[in-house]
Protein backbone atom coordinates (compact mmCIF):
# COMPACT_ATOMS: atom_id res chain seq x y z
CA UNK A 1 0.00 0.00 0.00
CA UNK A 2 2.74 2.38 1.03
CA UNK A 3 4.52 1.67 -2.24
CA UNK A 4 1.38 2.30 -4.25
CA UNK A 5 0.81 5.66 -2.63
CA UNK A 6 4.34 6.82 -3.37
CA UNK A 7 3.87 5.68 -6.92
CA UNK A 8 0.63 7.65 -7.18
CA UNK A 9 2.21 10.76 -5.72
CA UNK A 10 5.16 10.44 -8.05
CA UNK A 11 2.76 10.12 -10.96
CA UNK A 12 0.88 13.22 -9.94
CA UNK A 13 4.10 15.12 -9.42
CA UNK A 14 5.36 14.03 -12.79
CA UNK A 15 2.14 15.13 -14.43
CA UNK A 16 2.20 18.50 -12.73
CA UNK A 17 5.78 18.86 -13.86
CA UNK A 18 4.76 17.86 -17.34
CA UNK A 19 1.94 20.36 -17.63
CA UNK A 20 3.82 23.11 -15.87
CA UNK A 21 6.63 22.66 -18.33
CA UNK A 22 4.23 22.45 -21.24
CA UNK A 23 2.33 25.51 -20.19
CA UNK A 24 5.37 27.64 -19.63
CA UNK A 25 6.96 26.76 -22.92
CA UNK A 26 4.00 26.48 -25.21
CA UNK A 27 1.79 29.49 -24.89
CA UNK A 28 -1.94 28.86 -24.67
CA UNK A 29 -2.80 29.94 -28.18
CA UNK A 30 -0.23 27.50 -29.40
CA UNK A 31 -2.02 24.55 -27.87
CA UNK A 32 -5.40 25.98 -28.80
CA UNK A 33 -4.52 26.52 -32.40
CA UNK A 34 -3.36 23.00 -32.96
CA UNK A 35 -6.44 21.59 -31.28
CA UNK A 36 -8.71 23.88 -33.27
CA UNK A 37 -7.21 22.80 -36.54
CA UNK A 38 -7.61 19.12 -35.77
CA UNK A 39 -11.34 19.86 -35.40
CA UNK A 40 -12.33 19.78 -39.05
CA UNK A 41 -15.49 21.20 -40.57
CA UNK A 42 -15.31 24.94 -40.07
CA UNK A 43 -12.09 25.21 -42.02
CA UNK A 44 -13.08 27.96 -44.41
CA UNK A 45 -14.60 30.15 -41.72
CA UNK A 46 -11.51 29.69 -39.65
CA UNK A 47 -9.38 30.47 -42.63
CA UNK A 48 -11.18 33.78 -43.12
CA UNK A 49 -10.80 34.64 -39.49
CA UNK A 50 -7.16 33.77 -39.71
CA UNK A 51 -6.75 35.97 -42.78
CA UNK A 52 -8.29 38.94 -41.04
CA UNK A 53 -6.08 38.36 -38.10
CA UNK A 54 -3.09 38.51 -40.41
CA UNK A 55 -4.41 41.75 -41.85
CA UNK A 56 -4.46 43.28 -38.40
CA UNK A 57 -0.92 42.17 -37.85
CA UNK A 58 0.16 43.62 -41.14
CA UNK A 59 -1.33 46.91 -40.14
CA UNK A 60 0.88 46.93 -37.07
CA UNK A 61 3.93 45.83 -38.97
CA UNK A 62 3.62 48.12 -41.93
CA UNK A 63 6.11 50.91 -42.38
CA UNK A 64 5.32 54.42 -41.28
CA UNK A 65 4.06 56.00 -44.44
CA UNK A 66 6.64 58.35 -45.91
CA UNK A 67 5.05 60.87 -48.24
CA UNK A 68 6.44 61.42 -51.68
CA UNK A 69 5.17 64.80 -52.92
CA UNK A 70 8.10 65.12 -55.33
CA UNK A 71 7.44 61.73 -56.92
CA UNK A 72 7.67 62.99 -60.51
CA UNK A 73 10.97 64.76 -59.91
CA UNK A 74 12.25 61.85 -57.81
CA UNK A 75 11.46 59.35 -60.54
CA UNK A 76 13.39 61.55 -62.95
CA UNK A 77 16.43 61.66 -60.69
CA UNK A 78 16.09 57.92 -60.08
CA UNK A 79 16.26 57.34 -63.84
CA UNK A 80 19.27 59.64 -64.08
CA UNK A 81 21.03 57.80 -61.23
CA UNK A 82 20.29 54.49 -62.91
CA UNK A 83 21.82 55.82 -66.12
CA UNK A 84 24.80 57.20 -64.20
CA UNK A 85 25.36 53.87 -62.46
CA UNK A 86 25.34 51.80 -65.64
CA UNK A 87 27.19 54.26 -67.87
CA UNK A 88 29.75 55.81 -65.51
CA UNK A 89 30.09 54.33 -62.04
CA UNK A 90 29.85 50.65 -62.93
CA UNK A 91 32.29 50.72 -65.89
CA UNK A 92 34.81 52.67 -63.80
CA UNK A 93 34.39 50.32 -60.84
CA UNK A 94 34.77 47.29 -63.10
CA UNK A 95 37.95 48.64 -64.65
CA UNK A 96 39.27 49.39 -61.20
CA UNK A 97 38.26 45.93 -59.98
CA UNK A 98 40.09 44.39 -62.93
CA UNK A 99 43.42 46.00 -61.99
CA UNK A 100 43.08 45.85 -58.19
CA UNK A 101 43.03 42.58 -56.25
CA UNK A 102 40.13 42.07 -53.84
CA UNK A 103 42.19 42.11 -50.60
CA UNK A 104 43.51 45.58 -51.52
CA UNK A 105 40.01 46.86 -52.15
CA UNK A 106 38.77 45.41 -48.87
CA UNK A 107 41.62 47.19 -47.06
CA UNK A 108 40.94 50.51 -48.75
CA UNK A 109 37.34 50.10 -47.67
CA UNK A 110 38.52 49.40 -44.10
CA UNK A 111 40.65 52.54 -44.20
CA UNK A 112 37.78 54.79 -45.22
CA UNK A 113 35.48 53.23 -42.64
CA UNK A 114 38.10 53.77 -39.94
CA UNK A 115 38.65 57.47 -40.65
CA UNK A 116 34.90 58.03 -40.57
CA UNK A 117 35.22 57.52 -36.81
CA UNK A 118 34.32 61.14 -35.82
CA UNK A 119 30.90 60.81 -37.49
CA UNK A 120 30.09 57.71 -35.46
CA UNK A 121 31.62 59.01 -32.23
CA UNK A 122 29.84 62.38 -32.21
CA UNK A 123 26.52 60.74 -33.09
CA UNK A 124 26.91 58.09 -30.38
CA UNK A 125 27.39 60.94 -27.90
CA UNK A 126 24.42 62.89 -29.29
CA UNK A 127 22.30 59.75 -28.87
CA UNK A 128 23.61 59.27 -25.33
CA UNK A 129 25.10 55.91 -26.27
CA UNK A 130 28.27 56.31 -24.22
CA UNK A 131 29.11 52.64 -24.14
CA UNK A 132 29.10 52.50 -27.92
CA UNK A 133 31.13 55.69 -28.12
CA UNK A 134 33.71 53.93 -25.96
CA UNK A 135 33.61 50.74 -28.06
CA UNK A 136 33.95 52.80 -31.23
CA UNK A 137 36.93 54.63 -29.79
CA UNK A 138 38.59 51.34 -28.83
CA UNK A 139 37.99 50.07 -32.33
CA UNK A 140 39.46 53.22 -33.88
CA UNK A 141 42.58 53.09 -31.69
CA UNK A 142 43.03 49.35 -32.18
CA UNK A 143 42.60 49.39 -35.95
CA UNK A 144 44.67 52.57 -36.40
CA UNK A 145 47.64 51.05 -34.57
CA UNK A 146 47.58 47.26 -34.74
CA UNK A 147 45.60 47.48 -38.00
CA UNK A 148 48.18 49.89 -39.51
CA UNK A 149 46.23 53.13 -40.11
CA UNK A 150 43.02 51.18 -40.38
CA UNK A 151 43.90 49.28 -43.54
CA UNK A 152 43.50 46.02 -41.66
CA UNK A 153 40.57 45.18 -39.48
CA UNK A 154 41.80 43.14 -36.50
CA UNK A 155 38.79 44.39 -34.50
CA UNK A 156 36.53 42.28 -36.70
CA UNK A 157 37.19 39.22 -34.53
CA UNK A 158 35.68 40.86 -31.47
CA UNK A 159 31.95 41.47 -31.76
CA UNK A 160 31.93 44.00 -28.89
CA UNK A 161 34.35 46.19 -30.89
CA UNK A 162 31.87 46.48 -33.75
CA UNK A 163 28.94 48.59 -32.63
CA UNK A 164 26.48 49.45 -35.42
CA UNK A 165 27.52 52.72 -37.10
CA UNK A 166 25.56 55.87 -36.31
CA UNK A 167 25.13 58.97 -38.46
CA UNK A 168 23.46 62.33 -38.10
CA UNK A 169 20.23 61.26 -39.81
CA UNK A 170 19.87 58.45 -37.26
CA UNK A 171 20.52 60.90 -34.44
CA UNK A 172 17.64 63.06 -35.67
CA UNK A 173 15.54 59.88 -35.85
CA UNK A 174 16.26 58.94 -32.23
CA UNK A 175 15.36 62.49 -31.22
CA UNK A 176 11.91 61.79 -32.60
CA UNK A 177 12.24 63.72 -35.85
CA UNK A 178 10.30 61.99 -38.62
CA UNK A 179 11.47 61.24 -42.14
CA UNK A 180 9.70 64.26 -43.59
CA UNK A 181 9.28 63.23 -47.19
CA UNK A 182 11.18 61.06 -49.61
CA UNK A 183 13.91 62.57 -51.76
CA UNK A 184 16.12 60.97 -54.38
CA UNK A 185 19.42 62.86 -54.44
CA UNK A 186 21.42 63.04 -57.65
CA UNK A 187 24.21 60.40 -57.54
CA UNK A 188 23.86 59.96 -53.74
CA UNK A 189 20.57 58.11 -54.20
CA UNK A 190 17.56 57.52 -51.91
CA UNK A 191 17.16 59.80 -48.92
CA UNK A 192 14.55 61.71 -46.97
CA UNK A 193 14.32 65.32 -45.89
CA UNK A 194 15.67 64.41 -42.46
CA UNK A 195 18.48 62.24 -43.78
CA UNK A 196 19.51 64.86 -46.35
CA UNK A 197 20.00 67.37 -43.55
CA UNK A 198 21.83 64.57 -41.72
CA UNK A 199 24.15 64.11 -44.67
CA UNK A 200 25.17 67.76 -44.36
CA UNK A 201 25.96 67.10 -40.70
CA UNK A 202 28.00 64.02 -41.64
CA UNK A 203 29.89 66.10 -44.17
CA UNK A 204 31.17 68.41 -41.45
CA UNK A 205 32.17 65.47 -39.26
CA UNK A 206 34.13 63.72 -42.01
CA UNK A 207 37.88 64.36 -41.79
CA UNK A 208 38.12 63.94 -45.57
CA UNK A 209 35.96 67.05 -45.97
CA UNK A 210 38.71 69.19 -44.43
CA UNK A 211 41.41 68.14 -46.86
CA UNK A 212 42.59 71.10 -48.92
CA UNK A 213 42.43 71.89 -51.81
CA UNK A 214 38.84 70.90 -52.34
CA UNK A 215 39.43 68.79 -55.47
CA UNK A 216 41.66 66.39 -53.54
CA UNK A 217 38.91 66.03 -50.95
CA UNK A 218 36.37 65.42 -53.71
CA UNK A 219 38.74 62.98 -55.40
CA UNK A 220 39.14 61.02 -52.17
CA UNK A 221 35.37 60.81 -51.71
CA UNK A 222 34.92 59.68 -55.29
CA UNK A 223 37.61 57.07 -54.89
CA UNK A 224 35.87 55.81 -51.75
CA UNK A 225 32.65 55.42 -53.72
CA UNK A 226 34.32 53.66 -56.65
CA UNK A 227 36.14 51.33 -54.29
CA UNK A 228 32.95 50.52 -52.40
CA UNK A 229 31.05 49.94 -55.64
CA UNK A 230 33.75 47.57 -56.88
CA UNK A 231 32.98 45.37 -53.86
CA UNK A 232 29.25 45.33 -54.45
CA UNK A 233 28.77 45.17 -58.20
CA UNK A 234 25.63 43.19 -58.85
CA UNK A 235 23.73 44.16 -55.72
CA UNK A 236 21.99 47.10 -57.34
CA UNK A 237 21.27 45.02 -60.44
CA UNK A 238 19.83 42.15 -58.37
CA UNK A 239 17.42 44.34 -56.45
CA UNK A 240 16.39 46.14 -59.60
CA UNK A 241 15.88 42.86 -61.47
CA UNK A 242 13.75 41.32 -58.75
CA UNK A 243 11.43 44.33 -58.58
CA UNK A 244 8.23 45.00 -60.49
CA UNK A 245 8.39 48.69 -59.72
CA UNK A 246 12.09 49.41 -59.04
CA UNK A 247 11.47 52.99 -57.89
CA UNK A 248 9.06 51.86 -55.16
CA UNK A 249 11.26 48.88 -54.29
CA UNK A 250 14.26 51.11 -53.60
CA UNK A 251 12.18 53.65 -51.76
CA UNK A 252 10.72 51.02 -49.45
CA UNK A 253 14.07 49.27 -48.95
CA UNK A 254 15.71 52.57 -48.00
CA UNK A 255 13.00 53.43 -45.50
CA UNK A 256 13.04 49.97 -43.91
CA UNK A 257 16.83 49.99 -43.76
CA UNK A 258 16.95 53.37 -42.04
CA UNK A 259 14.21 52.38 -39.63
CA UNK A 260 16.25 49.37 -38.55
CA UNK A 261 19.43 51.47 -38.24
CA UNK A 262 17.62 53.97 -36.00
CA UNK A 263 16.27 51.18 -33.80
CA UNK A 264 19.73 49.75 -33.24
CA UNK B 1 6.72 -2.99 -6.67
CA UNK B 2 10.24 -2.92 -7.93
CA UNK B 3 9.11 -1.84 -11.35
CA UNK B 4 7.85 1.55 -10.19
CA UNK B 5 11.16 3.44 -10.24
CA UNK B 6 11.64 2.14 -13.75
CA UNK B 7 8.25 3.43 -14.84
CA UNK B 8 8.89 6.79 -13.27
CA UNK B 9 12.24 6.96 -14.95
CA UNK B 10 10.62 6.08 -18.26
CA UNK B 11 8.06 8.83 -17.80
CA UNK B 12 10.83 11.28 -17.09
CA UNK B 13 12.49 10.24 -20.30
CA UNK B 14 9.39 11.16 -22.23
CA UNK B 15 8.64 14.32 -20.32
CA UNK B 16 12.01 16.01 -20.12
CA UNK B 17 12.64 16.41 -23.84
CA UNK B 18 9.22 18.05 -24.22
CA UNK B 19 9.68 20.54 -21.45
CA UNK B 20 13.26 21.30 -22.47
CA UNK B 21 12.50 22.39 -26.01
CA UNK B 22 10.72 25.71 -26.37
CA UNK B 23 8.82 26.93 -29.44
CA UNK B 24 11.77 29.18 -30.29
CA UNK B 25 14.03 26.11 -30.34
CA UNK B 26 11.60 24.44 -32.70
CA UNK B 27 11.75 27.42 -35.03
CA UNK B 28 15.52 27.48 -34.83
CA UNK B 29 15.78 23.77 -35.65
CA UNK B 30 13.37 24.13 -38.53
CA UNK B 31 15.36 26.95 -40.15
CA UNK B 32 18.81 25.57 -39.44
CA UNK B 33 18.02 22.11 -40.82
CA UNK B 34 16.66 23.59 -44.04
CA UNK B 35 19.55 26.03 -44.46
CA UNK B 36 22.07 23.28 -43.69
CA UNK B 37 20.48 21.08 -46.34
CA UNK B 38 20.74 23.92 -48.85
CA UNK B 39 24.41 24.42 -47.96
CA UNK B 40 25.19 20.71 -48.31
CA UNK B 41 23.77 20.69 -51.81
CA UNK B 42 25.55 23.91 -52.75
CA UNK B 43 28.88 22.55 -51.53
CA UNK B 44 28.50 19.12 -53.07
CA UNK B 45 31.38 18.94 -55.54
CA UNK B 46 29.30 16.78 -57.87
CA UNK B 47 26.92 19.70 -58.27
CA UNK B 48 29.55 22.27 -59.14
CA UNK B 49 29.66 21.49 -62.84
CA UNK B 50 27.54 23.33 -65.33
CA UNK B 51 25.85 20.14 -66.54
CA UNK B 52 24.44 19.28 -63.11
CA UNK B 53 23.21 22.78 -62.44
CA UNK B 54 19.64 22.01 -63.34
CA UNK B 55 19.64 18.89 -61.14
CA UNK B 56 21.03 20.94 -58.27
CA UNK B 57 18.37 23.55 -58.86
CA UNK B 58 15.65 20.92 -58.69
CA UNK B 59 17.00 19.59 -55.41
CA UNK B 60 17.23 23.10 -53.98
CA UNK B 61 13.72 23.84 -55.12
CA UNK B 62 12.24 21.01 -53.08
CA UNK B 63 14.00 22.22 -49.93
CA UNK B 64 13.04 25.82 -50.53
CA UNK B 65 9.44 24.71 -50.96
CA UNK B 66 9.42 23.11 -47.51
CA UNK B 67 11.15 26.14 -46.01
CA UNK B 68 8.67 28.71 -47.33
CA UNK B 69 4.91 28.65 -47.44
CA UNK B 70 4.37 30.31 -50.79
CA UNK B 71 0.58 30.65 -50.47
CA UNK B 72 1.01 32.42 -47.17
CA UNK B 73 3.64 34.72 -48.66
CA UNK B 74 1.44 35.48 -51.67
CA UNK B 75 -1.44 36.38 -49.39
CA UNK B 76 0.74 38.59 -47.26
CA UNK B 77 2.28 40.53 -50.13
CA UNK B 78 -1.16 41.42 -51.43
CA UNK B 79 -2.54 42.36 -48.02
CA UNK B 80 -5.96 43.96 -48.23
CA UNK B 81 -5.63 44.24 -51.99
CA UNK B 82 -6.44 40.56 -52.37
CA UNK B 83 -10.11 41.37 -51.82
CA UNK B 84 -10.22 42.74 -55.35
CA UNK B 85 -8.83 39.46 -56.74
CA UNK B 86 -11.08 36.63 -57.86
CA UNK B 87 -10.12 33.15 -56.56
CA UNK B 88 -8.75 32.24 -60.03
CA UNK B 89 -6.68 35.41 -60.18
CA UNK B 90 -5.46 34.69 -56.68
CA UNK B 91 -4.34 31.20 -57.70
CA UNK B 92 -2.53 32.52 -60.71
CA UNK B 93 -0.92 35.26 -58.69
CA UNK B 94 0.28 32.76 -56.12
CA UNK B 95 1.74 30.56 -58.84
CA UNK B 96 3.49 33.41 -60.68
CA UNK B 97 4.82 35.06 -57.57
CA UNK B 98 6.18 31.75 -56.28
CA UNK B 99 8.02 31.22 -59.55
CA UNK B 100 9.46 34.72 -59.41
CA UNK B 101 10.68 34.29 -55.84
CA UNK B 102 12.14 30.86 -56.52
CA UNK B 103 13.99 32.21 -59.49
CA UNK B 104 15.41 35.16 -57.54
CA UNK B 105 16.28 33.10 -54.49
CA UNK B 106 17.86 30.20 -56.36
CA UNK B 107 19.87 32.47 -58.66
CA UNK B 108 21.22 34.23 -55.64
CA UNK B 109 22.19 31.20 -53.59
CA UNK B 110 23.69 29.37 -56.55
CA UNK B 111 26.05 32.33 -56.96
CA UNK B 112 27.16 32.24 -53.34
CA UNK B 113 28.42 28.81 -52.39
CA UNK B 114 31.57 29.44 -50.36
CA UNK B 115 30.07 31.79 -47.83
CA UNK B 116 29.75 30.76 -44.23
CA UNK B 117 26.45 30.90 -42.40
CA UNK B 118 26.50 31.75 -38.71
CA UNK B 119 23.30 31.10 -36.79
CA UNK B 120 22.15 33.67 -34.29
CA UNK B 121 19.34 33.42 -31.81
CA UNK B 122 15.69 32.63 -32.33
CA UNK B 123 13.09 34.89 -30.73
CA UNK B 124 9.33 34.52 -30.51
CA UNK B 125 7.54 37.44 -32.18
CA UNK B 126 4.10 36.38 -31.02
CA UNK B 127 2.42 33.25 -29.76
CA UNK B 128 3.11 31.23 -32.89
CA UNK B 129 5.61 33.30 -34.85
CA UNK B 130 9.37 33.41 -34.50
CA UNK B 131 12.34 35.10 -36.10
CA UNK B 132 15.58 33.17 -36.58
CA UNK B 133 18.72 35.22 -37.11
CA UNK B 134 21.50 34.14 -39.45
CA UNK B 135 24.57 35.93 -40.73
CA UNK B 136 26.08 35.22 -44.12
CA UNK B 137 29.79 35.98 -44.02
CA UNK B 138 31.47 36.97 -47.29
CA UNK B 139 35.03 38.13 -47.96
CA UNK B 140 34.27 41.78 -47.36
CA UNK B 141 31.24 41.85 -45.08
CA UNK B 142 28.52 40.18 -43.06
CA UNK B 143 24.97 40.16 -44.33
CA UNK B 144 22.30 39.60 -41.69
CA UNK B 145 19.50 37.42 -43.06
CA UNK B 146 16.62 36.69 -40.71
CA UNK B 147 13.89 34.14 -41.35
CA UNK B 148 10.39 34.67 -40.02
CA UNK B 149 8.48 31.48 -39.42
CA UNK B 150 4.98 30.65 -38.29
CA UNK B 151 3.71 27.52 -36.52
CA UNK B 152 0.57 26.32 -38.23
CA UNK B 153 -1.19 22.98 -38.71
CA UNK B 154 1.43 21.34 -36.51
CA UNK B 155 4.50 22.47 -38.43
CA UNK B 156 6.73 25.43 -39.01
CA UNK B 157 6.91 27.32 -42.29
CA UNK B 158 8.63 30.47 -43.43
CA UNK B 159 6.57 33.54 -44.33
CA UNK B 160 9.20 36.27 -44.68
CA UNK B 161 12.93 36.87 -45.11
CA UNK B 162 14.58 40.00 -43.76
CA UNK B 163 17.81 40.91 -45.48
CA UNK B 164 19.79 43.70 -43.84
CA UNK B 165 16.65 44.88 -42.09
CA UNK B 166 14.56 44.91 -45.26
CA UNK B 167 11.54 42.63 -45.19
CA UNK B 168 10.95 40.97 -48.53
CA UNK B 169 7.21 40.75 -47.99
CA UNK B 170 6.92 44.39 -47.01
CA UNK B 171 9.02 45.44 -49.98
CA UNK B 172 6.84 43.58 -52.48
CA UNK B 173 3.69 44.71 -50.75
CA UNK B 174 4.68 48.35 -51.17
CA UNK B 175 5.27 47.73 -54.88
CA UNK B 176 1.97 45.90 -55.39
CA UNK B 177 0.14 48.59 -53.45
CA UNK B 178 1.64 51.20 -55.71
CA UNK B 179 0.77 49.31 -58.89
CA UNK B 180 -2.78 48.49 -57.75
CA UNK B 181 -3.48 52.13 -56.93
CA UNK B 182 -3.81 52.82 -60.63
CA UNK B 183 -4.14 49.42 -62.26
CA UNK B 184 -6.39 46.38 -62.03
CA UNK B 185 -5.41 42.96 -60.69
CA UNK B 186 -5.38 41.73 -64.31
CA UNK B 187 -2.77 44.36 -65.25
CA UNK B 188 -0.64 43.29 -62.32
CA UNK B 189 -0.92 39.64 -63.35
CA UNK B 190 0.08 40.56 -66.89
CA UNK B 191 3.12 42.41 -65.58
CA UNK B 192 4.06 39.40 -63.43
CA UNK B 193 3.60 37.02 -66.36
CA UNK B 194 5.93 39.09 -68.50
CA UNK B 195 8.45 39.30 -65.70
CA UNK B 196 8.44 35.58 -64.96
CA UNK B 197 8.60 34.61 -68.61
CA UNK B 198 11.42 37.04 -69.23
CA UNK B 199 13.29 35.66 -66.25
CA UNK B 200 12.80 32.09 -67.36
CA UNK B 201 13.39 32.91 -70.99
CA UNK B 202 16.97 31.76 -71.55
CA UNK B 203 16.10 28.11 -70.97
CA UNK B 204 12.60 28.08 -72.33
CA UNK B 205 12.92 30.49 -75.21
CA UNK B 206 13.36 27.84 -77.86
CA UNK B 207 10.36 25.83 -76.69
CA UNK B 208 8.22 28.94 -76.44
CA UNK B 209 9.14 30.08 -79.90
CA UNK B 210 8.16 26.73 -81.35
CA UNK B 211 4.80 26.85 -79.59
CA UNK B 212 4.15 30.32 -80.88
CA UNK B 213 4.98 29.25 -84.40
CA UNK B 214 2.35 26.55 -84.28
CA UNK B 215 -0.34 28.79 -82.83
CA UNK B 216 0.29 31.99 -84.74
CA UNK B 217 1.36 30.51 -88.03
CA UNK B 218 4.17 31.57 -90.30
CA UNK B 219 4.37 35.29 -89.57
CA UNK B 220 5.89 34.90 -86.16
CA UNK B 221 8.50 32.51 -87.52
CA UNK B 222 9.59 34.93 -90.16
CA UNK B 223 9.87 37.68 -87.57
CA UNK B 224 11.98 35.58 -85.28
CA UNK B 225 14.12 34.40 -88.17
CA UNK B 226 14.94 38.01 -88.88
CA UNK B 227 15.90 38.52 -85.29
What does this structure look like?
- The complex is a heterodimer of chains A (about 260) and B (about 230).
- Chain A has helices at about 1-25, 30-40, 45-60, 70-100, 100-115, 115-125, 130-145, 170-175, 195-205, 215-230, 235-240, 245-264; strands at about 180-185, 190.
- A two-stranded antiparallel sheet of chain A has the order 1-2.
- Chain A is about 70% helix and about 5% strand.
- In chain A, α8 (about 170-175) packs across α12.
- Chain B has one domain: Tgt2/MlaC (Nuclear Transport Factor 2, Chain: A), CATH 3.10.450.710.
- Chain B has helices spanning about 5-20, 25-45, 55-65, 70-80, 85-110, 170-180, 185-215, 220-225; strands at about 115-125, 130-135, 140-150, 155-165, 165.
- Chain B has a five-stranded antiparallel beta sheet.
- The model of chain B is unreliable at about 205-225 (pLDDT under 50).
- At the A-B interface, α1, α2, α3, α5 and α11 of A face α1, α5, β5, α6 and α7 of B.
Care to give the gist of this entry?
The complex is a heterodimer of chains A (264) and B (227). With 264 residues, chain A is mostly helical.
